[in-house]
Design a protein that fits this description.
Main location: cytoplasm
Function: Cell wall formation.
Strand order of the largest sheet: 6-7-12-10-11
Number of strands: 20
Distance between the termini: 25 Å
Order of helices and strands: EEHEEEEEHHEEEEHEHHEEHEEHEEEHE
Radius of gyration: 20 Å
Protein name: UDP-N-acetylenolpyruvoylglucosamine reductase
Oligomer: single chain
Helix content: 25-40%
Cofactor: FAD
InterPro entries: FAD-bd_PCMH, FAD-bd_PCMH-like_sf, FAD-bd_PCMH_sub1, FAD-bd_PCMH_sub2, MurB, MurB_C, MurB_C_sf, Oxid_FAD_bind_N
């Protein structure tokens, strides 16, 4: 277990915000996570993070920051005719898991390619993209209960996953240190192409029946074309969640905005792209001082180099107000704001 005093977190958040914490602790094993739980109980104030790809720091953190060691570690723990159970260390990059899985003929995660962040965060956030959500792959989450320092196993049903939500973000917040996630992957590749512009991108490459690797590469190209590299332009990917509204409200809005896109959720609800709403309010490509909205994807807020977390937060709130004023829809951050 590694512990650092008065630690700068700039390299641990993809926004590139300079913020310090009193102590920074890295756990590399389950036993170290059990010990870290004791440090957390003694600290009084703590923050659990992964790679910081979904984090906005608005000030220095007066307390202990804890993270799993960033390393690649995966293991097949069970296999049958249909698929495998792949156990992955919490600090493993999630996209590396997908690359490994495809290379070893394990399928089901292709549409989640190139989402930043680590395995542990995938289980907290219920990450998703292009019609897929990681909850449909998660079997169980291995963790250490902070209150007792004991290792536990949490089944998928206990996590109560929904769109970008889990119990880890609510009543379980700061109650567990995740050490591993076990995913169920399949031996038969079944492509899911009917979301966003996947088919159009495949058509442009003259690909009719993509392999898993071709689908992954196509999704990576789509994401890279519209999402900035955080090493070049600080950002946390999609800053806002797509709002889910009642069909009656959607029908009313569409009477005035017939071009408003949507995705079916159920018989009474639809999902509206937050990026489209933000774009309609004139924010796409707009800069305010050191912060702004990316010119290729309105869901992405960016740091032009010297921004503070407070500047990003102020921009977030202004955009929320504008969207609500125009459409009567409240959009919420997907990013964890500290």
């Amino acid at each position: 277990m590694k512990v650092y005093e008065n630690y700068n977190l700039k390299s641990h958040n993809t926004f590139g915000i300079a913020a310090a914490c009193n102590r920074f602790l890295v756990y590399a094993t389950v036993d170290e996570a059990c010990l870290a739980a004791g440090d957390i109980r003694k600290s009084g104030r703590s923050l659990l993070i992964g790679s910081g790809s979904n984090l906005l720091l608005t000030r220095d953190f007066q307390g202990l920051v804890v993270t799993p060691e960033p390393r690649f570690e995966v293991e097949v723990v069970k296999e049958d005719e249909a698929g495998v159970e792949l156990k992955c260390w919490a600090g493993t990059r999630f996209d590396d898991v997908i690359a490994y899985a495809i290379g070893h003929r394990m399928y089901g995660a292709e549409n989640l390619s190139w989402i930043p962040g680590e395995v542990g965060a995938s289980a907290v956030q219920n990450i998703g993209a292009y019609g897929a959500e990681v909850k449909d792959l998660i079997l169980r989450v291995e963790a250490v209960e902070i209150a007792t320092g004991k290792a536990v196993v949490l089944q998928r049903r206990e996590c109560e996953y929904s769109y970008r939500q889990s119990r880890f973000k609510h009543e379980w917040k700061d109650k567990y240190l995740i050490t591993a996630v076990v995913y169920r992957l399949f031996k038969t590749f079944v492509p899911h192409l009917d979301y966003g512009n996947i088919r159009a991108a495949l058509d442009a490459e003259h690909i009719v029946e993509p392999t898993a690797l071709q689908l992954r590469e196509t999704i990576i190209r789509i994401r890279q074309a519209k999402l900035p590299d955080p090493d070049v332009l600080g950002n946390a990917g999609s800053f806002f969640m797509n709002p889910i509204i009642g069909r009656e409200q959607y029908d009313s809005l569409r009477a005035d905005c017939p071009q408003m896109p949507h995705y079916e959720v159920d018989a009474t609800h639809v999902k509206v792209p937050a990026g489209w709403l933000i774009d309609q309010c004139g924010w796409k490509g707009k800069r305010v001082g050191n912060v702004g909205v990316h010119d290729k994807q309105a869901l992405v807020l960016v740091n032009y180099g010297q921004a503070t977390g407070r500047e990003v937060l102020d921009l977030c709130r202004t955009i929320q107000q504008d969207v609500h004023s125009r459409f009567g829809i409240q959009i919420y951050p997907e990013v964890n704001i500290v």
